[in-house]
Amino acid sequence: MSDEDLRRDPDAESVEVVSRRAPNPGPMTLTGTNSYVLRDGGQSWVVDPGPRDPAHLASLIRLAMGEGQQVLGVLVTHRHGDHSDGAGTLRRQLEARSGRPVKLWAADPSSVPGAHIPPTELHGDSGLVADVIAVPGHTADSVALLVEGGRLLTGDTVLGGSSTVIAPPDGSLTAYLQSLAILRAMALDGRISSLHPGHGEPVDSPTEVIAVLEEAIAHREQRIAQVRAARAAGVLTLDRLIREVYGAGLEGKLREAASWNLRATLEHISAVDGR
Q1: pLDDT tens for residues 176-198?
Q2: Where do the record's region annotations for Disordered lie (predicted)?
Q3: Is-above-0.70 flag for pTM?
């Protein structure tokens, strides 16, 4: 994803969203973490700096300060290190270069040293830049940013081309389904025009946005039905559930992710059934 991919007509939207992909591809990060820079006139913000990679952080500094912008804050969408590990370093480097304080925000400040709880809105030269929306599920502290014009920076709540991992006890399938339902309602109401995920490619069509969110909900409901059916058939151990639901070929990180998702599904079923 180049830094041209998310540029918009400046006559249509005053806030520019620019992306950079971190060099950390893998089974859990797909093609790498997508970091974003929001620019509104002479002000800017960095979302999800990603890993503590010097070259990647340097590119974010250039984007955030490139035309003399004042960087107002660094925000992480959730606690996982592939989104947050570089946040403190980036903040210090930005402050050193600008000679000005830069705020650091995380919904769970204990997960990012020096961070504070983010505001519900980011404001810049042109007024409202983005709403910060709580979307728990992938993690308890997950947030998304609804940028002016309907562009939703999703973190790991919605990925481009893959389903997200939900690892209890921090992750909750029950909360995740509620978050997806809220985002779907916002999309149907015309408030979300595009999705810009923490990993994978963006979704640029409002019609596609609705389809992606509905597919994510349907995928989880299908998994719930599969687990219910397997347990009714006498499949009770996690190892057997993995083979029954995902097949026998999963290994390494993918198998670990499958076990987390199944634990989240079992917890959800238990909560729904009241036992």
Answers
A1: 999 999 999 999 999 999 999 99
A2: 1-31
A3: yes
Express each pLDDT in 127-185 by its tens digit: 999 999 999 999 999 999 999 999 999 999 999 999 999 999 999 999 999 999 999 99
The four Cα atoms 98, 103, 106, 110 give a dihedral, to 10 degrees, of 100
Distance CA 180, CA 56 (A): 31
Neighbour-count burial for 170-185, b at 16+ CB within 10 Å, e otherwise? bbbbbbbbebbeebbe
Bridge-based pairing state of the strands 34-40 and 103-105: unpaired
Considering the domain boundaries, does residue 41 fall inside one? yes
What is the total count of domains within the chain?
1
Environment class of residue 4 by beta-carbon count within 10 Å: exposed (0-12), middle (13-18) or buried (19+)? exposed
Residue 31's CATH number: 3.60.15.10
Look at residue 2 and tell me if it is in a domain. Answer: no
Q: Give, in order, the Cα–Cα distances in Å from 51 to each of 15, 42, 178.
A: 25, 26, 29
Residue 8 maps to a domain: no
Instruction: Return the bridge partners of 44, or none.
Output: 39, 71
